[in-house]
Write a structure and sequence with these properties.
The structure is a homotetramer. By secondary structure, chain A is α/β, with parallel strands linked by helices. In chain A, 41% of the residues lie in helices and 26% in strands. Chain A has 13 helices and 15 strands. Chain A starts with a strand and ends with a strand. The interface between A and D is large, with 38 and 39 residues. Strand 13 of chain C pairs antiparallel with strand 12 of chain D.
Chain lengths: 328, 328, 328, 328
């Protein structure tokens, strides 16, 4: 039985806490949040106690779930592992590559499991695709295409603190590209523009972007992002290999289709990220719990978090300079 | 808070009991089963007590969930409503139309809610299709096509006690056809053969069947069934109307597709009925709980159970005689 | 080089004549039509001469293409074969089973090739499906589902002379069902109603219909027809067998798809029968020419034409009486 | 009636000549080819005479169709327009941007119509997509994704003379990207590798490539190419805009689909370029003939040919240097 302290009782904290409480081999012991009512509500629903962040970290729990704002992640990871706790931390570890690099030796010295919440690796569709790649169903991977479009942009106030599209949104796709290809990308070239909302451009960011990357062996990944898709939350992967192509298509609201004079119309796709990835979030937490219980190191690790962040930083720089950036 | 007594701790009893226990406005108070260990295991998992069937019906619960063998349903419905309990009973009410007709006045006199577990009405896909029919999205319904194929036939020993394919399997489709068309069918013609397994024919039943039915106003429904589909649990509906066509396609295991020299291959469809209809089962129980709490009568009612059984009986007779049978 | 005399310069006569003229091993020598301008126009476009029907039949051509009104088909077949000509005749041979039965011995005595224009057998999609059935790709055929819906009903004046939906429209599907199953159907049950246009009902016909048929070995075919589909010319086949399912889906106008807040919308399907079956018409004529040149008997033969007509007649009777009809 | 002289009686010359001969307002008068038998065979099939290239250009024809090897295109265009003939020339105009720039003033001074055979603009699917973009069905274009994969690489001997993948294969996609976006791309970044066949790398070329480009207003196009796809000739376009997404999917061999324990398998896609683009080739020639007859200037023009070549040259350089290249 893995007992958790949950830091952060917001939207994603609640999703994860419910999964932990529902598993037969885990439970939530404490919840901390800057807003006492939020902490109390979540604690009540999972049978936990409310405590401060420091109390939770110092408690006798086995693991800390970090769902607080991004700028606290690295500090909390360090404190948690130094206090002998395993950690499941929401992505990203930090907007700063340098900050992650400082945390790394502390994590390694602790010997504790630190897993980063790149939930998409745990999506049943993407996971099945990855497994089939691993089984060489289409031979060697040559070209990965990732399309990711949000239903609607977040408020500009959010964007201003986000670190920019490459660190905030495309970070998921950088992780997925590494996950699917299984090699490090050594060159990154990025394009971007504020086509959806000029205010995003004024804030110094982009809302439409494309990145192409290549590994040392020549494998290519192409990622495109948009902050707005009128038809839902567009999440697709396509991998072209020596033996064929594997792709994961979108998840539609229902399987209902209408035919009339306007054509054949299928349903829109799921448009809320928690709804789209509900199974992924549950599988992610389950994987962490099982790894900790089994004494193995869960992935994606903090090294994966660092690698994705390096790609995001390279893309950010490439977009600024117009030139390709070498990494690793 | 609606408190339930659960009769029958088998596969479907466990699914429903978990839903009841998970809702905020319902709970399981008692579980009864002929096998004490099964009752104990289920009671333990939902925080209920074990009792005998008679004790449960006589208890202070608000509602009885009947998940026992079919031949006990009608008796248990009668006893439950006479004891002042609402009832959610698994389909079918009885293999005998006459037996249901005897239960009907007892149910009506009691004034209690009696809902029959035709789960497919609650499938999110079929439910969305029904709502869009109701909204006249394709005008007037003219022709309904229902395709239902099981992954594999049950044991012949099961088939021998099942009442035959029309009563055991197609009963769901009879209910769906009534649900979608919104009128009673007055003529039924059935064909059938034992093409999958000769032993099913030897047992007096068929494993492949087709039924076509017509309402007084001329609307037509065509249902085909097979006891075996190599590609999963095939569950499709198509409604053709004056303004177009609405259909609910199958639910695939994942959205992953492979392309290679053999073509473009999507995943098989879900092949276990509880997995395929997991959302439907939950929605069904939720609808019952909310109806009882709100003091309204839930559907499908015992009248719907009777109507579907009449169609099944007519189809059975039609298959035997080769001629169309008039009902209602 | 097979030289043709073409009887009938209407819509389908023009399509076939252009195919004949375009093949390397066939040509059109004569064209006859009750309307001299129509005959002249077609003859001019394919390098043929105009002549009367009797002159064409008496000429030195190898084969007669019969594209005249249905009620002339049987007479013209008889005269053509008696004059030593091979015949490709548009479907149906006759609206009367009895009339076809009278023509049969004359055709057989002549030893000439007589092929009936059931064009759908030659559709590349349906043809590929049939070949794969023949190769036992899904094992033994158990259940065939044919859906056929016209874009819009013909004028009531046409319907009054058509012999009714079963002889005029479903005749294609009766032929396809025999083609796909490879056995004769021995029982036929039909339902029908005038749901699209009451005037069709007043004219004694139906516009929406369902037929289910069974072979002596138990195989089942289900056919549904509508005279109106708002989304195009709906032409689908699905065959369920012991090893799986094979289906031929519709042919869409383009492969373009739009996604927006209303969903994912593919194009309508082809809605003009000549456009939908352009490749089938060409393949049909080519098959006839090659068979005649090679000295083999082309199919579908006049026997196939007779068999389909028997099923249409049985369905017409079944719809009238409400009872199943035995054939063969 | 537009009379043509055809230069080059190879594969594509034959396709175009048959179209010209089949149109009501065009004909082939002369055919020239270095191989006399090829010229004779084609001339015979379309009712034309054989002549030398110079004789054809000097003849009284209205238009010259240039289907000779690429390195002759620019010379033949110049000679043809100087001889007062309109020109339809196969792509590319030249592998050298500089050579096209030299031909440009000669073409412009002549006032003759010069159209370049970028056939994909005339594909019914891509053409319909373009029209719907033009009609603002999805608002403003933001992001174009073009996927193009050949079934199998050409011989290395061909690749050595081809100018490289960007000039030989991706040239089509550069033209399509300009066609779809309607603005010039000002920056180009290319990646490439020889992943399919090391011999292609040894020959100095790549077989797998990705290019991303941006217009001055920020619009982005992403193109990926592979010289090998095991499942056919993969040709897809996807345009994301402010109001939604439009995409043109692949063209499959048939609409037949099989379901069995391995999943739901649709047919492979068309895998021979002439077969895939048969309608496009015909529409292209028809557009040229109609423009010449109507006295308008057909597109894509030689300016379009030049623009695509500039992008190909920029991509070639970018792949070599690893850096983005500015164009226009």
């Amino acid at each position: 039985m893995i007992r958790f302290g949950v830091l952060g009782a917001g939207r994603i904290g609640k999703v994860h806490a419910a999964t932990i409480a529902g598993l037969s081999n885990s439970s939530v012991a404490y919840v901390a949040d800057a807003m006492p009512e939020a902490a109390q509500a979540l604690a009540g629903s999972v049978g936990a106690k409310v405590a401060s962040v420091d109390e939770v970290i110092a408690s006798d729990v086995d693991a800390i779930l970090i769902c607080t704002p991004t700028d606290t992640h690295a500090d909390l990871i360090e404190k948690s592992v130094q206090s002998g706790k395993h950690v499941l931390c929401e992505k990203p570890v930090s907007l700063s590559v340098e900050r992650i690099e400082r945390a790394l030796p502390i994590v390694e010295k602790s010997g504790k499991a630190v897993m980063i919440g790149f939930n998409r690796r745990f999506d049943p569709n993407f996971g099945a695709l990855k497994k089939r790649l691993h089984d060489k169903e289409i031979g060697e991977v040559e070209l990965v295409t990732i399309i990711s479009r949000d239903p609607a942009p977040p408020p500009v106030s959010y964007i201003e603190r986000s670190g920019g599209l490459f660190r905030d949104m495309m970070i998921h796709d950088f992780d997925l590209a590494r996950f699917l290809v299984g090699e490090e990308f050594v060159s990154v070239h990025a394009l971007g523009a504020a086509l959806v909302d000029p205010a995003i451009g004024t804030a110094g960011d982009v809302d439409t972007a494309a990145v192409q990357m290549q590994t040392a062996s020549g494998k290519i990944a192409v990622i495109t992002n948009s902050r707005r898709a009128t038809y839902g939350y567009d999440q697709r992967i396509e991998v072209h290999g020596s033996g064929g192509m594997l792709r994961a298509n979108n998840v539609h609201m229902t399987t209902v289709e209408r035919a009339d004079a306007s054509g054949f119309t299928g349903d829109v796709i799921k448009n809320f990220f928690i709804d789209r990835y509900v199974a992924a979030y549950a599988a992610e937490v389950t994987a962490f719990v099982n790894a900790v219980e089994g004494g193995t190191k869960p992935t994606p690790s903090i090294h994966d978090g660092l690698a994705a962040q390096k790609l995001a930083e390279a893309a950010t720089e490439s977009r600024r300079t117009g030139q390709a950036v070498r990494v690793f």
